[in-house]
Design brief:
Number of strands: 12
Order of helices and strands: HEEEEHEHEHHEEEEEHEHHHH
CATH superfamily of the largest domain: Ribonuclease Z/Hydroxyacylglutathione hydrolase-like
Distance between the termini: 56 Å
Strand content: 15-25%
CATH topology of the largest domain: Metallo-beta-lactamase, Chain A
CATH class of the largest domain: Alpha Beta
Number of domains: 2
CATH architecture of the largest domain: 4-Layer Sandwich
Largest sheet: 7 strands, mixed
Radius of gyration: 21 Å
Bound molecules: zinc ion
Helix content: 40-55%
Number of helices: 10
Strand order of the largest sheet: 1-2-3-4-5-6-7
Structural class: alpha/beta
C-alpha cells in the first residue's frame, strides 16, 4: 500500500504537473535577431513563436500570438531589449495563434504596418471566420472534456495518463481557456501590406526578404529570410515535434514548397512551434513525409481507390516513429495533425478539390 507520505508527494507532484510553465524563452540568433520560443510543454501548439529583428532604427517582428495578453508579454520582452519602435509585423499566415495578437502590436505602436499574404483577407473572411465561430461554439465543451480527462487521470481510451500527456493536457486546458476568454472581444487586424510572391524590406543595413514559396501549411504561407544571417523564419511550414499538415494545408504542394525552402540554404530555422533548429534534418524529414503522402495518394487516386481505401493503404508508421518515437502523446499528435487530416486533404486535392 502506498504510504501516506508517498501519497502526499504524489498529490503534490500531480498538482505541480497541473501548473503548466508559461511563457517563452528569448534566444539571440545573430546581431539584433532574437527568437522568442514558446516553452509550454509539447501539446496542441496553442501559441506561436515570434522573431524580433532589431534594425538600425526600427524593429521588424515575425508573427503575433494567440491572444492580446500573450502578445503583450512578448511586447514587454521586446521592450526589455530595445527602445526602437516596431515598424512592421509580418504574419506568416492567418491562423489565430499567429494573428489575433496583431491589435496589441498596434496598440503599442499605432503606426505599425502588418505584412501578410494577399490571400489573407479572403482566408480570414472565409475559413477563418468559420474556424473562429467553431471555436466559440465548441471550445467551451472541448475545455470541459480536457478538464474531465485530467481529473479522471485517464486518456480517451481509458488508459492512465502518463506524465507527458498529463502536462500537455494541463497546459492545453489553460491555454484554451485563455484563448476563449479573450477571443470574443478580439479585434481582428488585417494586413496593410500584401505580398503575392516576395517583398524585400531594407531597414538600415539589413535586408529582410518575405517570400511566398508555395502552398503548404496553408495556401498562403510566408517565410521570412535573412540572407546575410542565413536564418529562415518558417511559420508553420515547419513545426516541431510533429508537422502540421492538417486540413487547411495543401499536402500535394507541401514537399515542393519545402524543397524551395531547403534550397535557400539556411543554417538556422525558426519554426512556428518548437525549438530553434540548427540544421535542416527536421525540415528534410517533413519534406520526405509530405512527398510520401503526395505519392501514395496520387497512386491511390490512379487506382480509383475511395477515400476509405486510401486511408487504409497509406502507411505512415515509418514517419510516426521518426517524429514521435515511443511517446504516446507525440504519436497521438502525429495522428491528430498529420495522419488523419492530411491523407484526406491530399485525396480531396488530388481529386480536384481546392484546398481552403
Ligand atoms: Zn501555429
Amino acid at each position: 500500500m502506498r504510504s501516506f507520505a508517498a501519497g502526499l508527494a504524489f498529490l503534490a507532484a500531480a498538482a505541480a504537473a497541473q501548473e503548466p510553465p508559461r511563457g517563452f524563452e528569448v534566444t539571440p540568433l545573430a546581431e539584433g535577431v532574437y527568437a522568442v520560443v514558446r516553452r509550454e510543454p509539447v501539446g496542441m501548439m496553442f501559441d506561436a513563436n515570434n522573431v524580433f529583428i532589431v534594425n538600425d532604427e526600427d524593429v521588424v517582428v515575425v508573427d503575433a500570438n494567440a491572444t492580446a495578453s500573450s502578445t503583450r508579454e512578448t511586447i514587454a520582452a521586446l521592450r526589455a531589449i530595445t527602445t526602437k519602435p516596431v515598424r512592421f509585423v509580418i504574419n506568416t499566415h492567418w491562423h489565430f495563434d499567429h494573428f489575433e495578437g496583431n491589435a496589441a502590436w498596434r496598440d503599442a505602436w499605432p503606426g505599425v504596418e502588418f505584412v501578410g499574404h494577399a490571400a489573407t483577407r479572403d482566408e480570414l473572411a472565409g475559413i477563418g471566420a468559420r474556424n473562429r465561430a467553431g471555436m466559440l461554439e465548441f471550445g467551451p465543451g472541448m475545455v470541459e472534456a480536457l478538464r474531465r480527462r485530467l481529473a479522471a487521470g485517464r486518456d480517451a481510451k481509458g488508459d492512465p495518463l502518463d506524465a507527458e500527456t498529463r502536462a500537455a493536457l494541463a497546459s492545453d486546458t489553460a491555454q484554451a481557456e485563455r484563448y476563449l476568454g479573450e477571443t470574443k472581444s478580439a479585434r481582428i487586424v488585417v494586413p496593410t501590406i500584401e505580398v503575392r510572391d516576395s517583398l524585400v524590406l531594407r531597414r538600415g543595413g539589413r535586408t529582410i526578404e518575405v517570400l511566398h514559396l508555395g502552398a503548404g501549411h496553408t495556401r498562403a504561407d510566408l517565410v521570412v529570410w535573412l540572407p546575410a544571417q542565413r536564418i529562415a523564419v518558417t511559420g508553420d511550414l515547419v513545426a516541431w515535434p510533429v508537422p502540421l499538415i492538417g486540413n487547411t494545408a495543401a499536402p500535394l504542394d507541401y514537399a515542393a514548397t519545402l524543397e524551395r525552402l531547403l534550397a535557400l540554404g539556411a543554417g538556422v530555422f525558426v519554426p512556428g512551434h518548437g525549438p530553434v533548429l540548427r540544421d535542416d534534418s527536421h525540415v528534410r524529414l517533413v519534406a520526405r513525409l509530405a512527398a510520401a503522402i503526395r505519392d501514395h495518394v496520387r497512386a491511390a487516386i490512379a487506382r480509383g481507390d475511395s477515400l476509405e481505401e486510401t486511408r487504409k493503404r497509406v502507411d505512415l508508421e515509418e514517419f510516426r516513429r521518426a517524429f514521435a518515437g515511443d511517446s504516446k502523446l507525440r504519436r497521438s499528435l502525429f495522428d491528430m495533425y498529420v495522419a488523419q487530416p492530411a491523407v484526406e486533404a491530399a485525396w480531396r486535392q488530388a481529386g480536384g478539390a481546392k484546398p481552403d
